[in-house]
Design brief:
The chain is α/β, with parallel strands linked by helices and about 190 residues long. It is built from 5 helices and 8 strands; from the N terminus they run ββββαβαβαβαβα. It has a 4-stranded antiparallel sheet, with no helix packed on it. It is globular, with a radius of gyration of 16 Å.
Length: about 190
């Protein structure tokens, strides 16, 4: 993922954040950067530079897997994506929040994706009062304009965030996902 940490001793908006470069699908152009604070109480937990509506991340790493599986799982943030990569799910795109961008939508249509799995945060009982859950409903509604109802699946994590889940919870979540979409639609590391 080529991330790095910007020391809090450095001046600038990205100080004290883990920073990821955002490339285009072919990794020919640097489109921007996304930084995430490691402090839970940070006022600006995420900060992106570049036109987020053009970000289709991490397609420079998983484009071939998405072409093979014809399936994409969308999640809110890069840490969620990285955690799913760790458990062998590679056909992921990051929303950088709770909105489905035109860039991602265009990518899904261009790649003739057959299944889209929505895995935003499951915040029904959190201080965010269901922001991720409402986002899931909104994203599904938008996708249903372009895909049939069997192609758009909500599969939220068992806890608020994918990052909050332990390995046992994620293993169960992954097995449930396979039951929902089939083994061939999961972008394993061997794809």
């Amino acid at each position: 993922f080529e991330c790095g940490y910007v020391s809090s001793k450095i001046k600038g908006k990205l100080k004290g954040k883990v920073v990821w470069p955002i490339y285009d699908t072919e990794k020919k152009s640097l489109l921007g950067f996304c930084g995430r604070s490691l402090e839970k109480e940070s006022k600006m937990r995420y900060l992106c530079f570049g036109e987020k509506s053009n970000f289709v991340y991490p397609s420079h790493l998983n484009n071939k897997i998405i072409e093979q599986t014809k399936c994409v799982l969308v999640t809110e943030g890069i840490p969620d994506c990285m955690k799913l990569f760790d458990i062998g799910i590679r056909n992921i795109l990051v929303l950088f929040g709770t909105e489905l961008s035109y860039g991602i939508l265009n990518y899904l249509l261009r790649k003739n994706v057959q299944k889209v799995i929505i895995s935003t945060n499951n915040e029904i009982n959190s201080a965010n009062k269901g922001a991720g859950n409402r986002a899931s409903i909104k994203i599904k509604s938008r996708l249903l304009r372009y895909f049939d109802s069997k192609s758009v699946i909500e599969h939220l994590p068992p806890k608020k965030d994918i990052m909050d889940c332990d390995n046992q919870e994620l293993d169960l979540w992954k097995r449930q996902l396979i039951l929902l979409v089939g083994e061939s639609h999961i972008g394993h590391e061997n794809c």
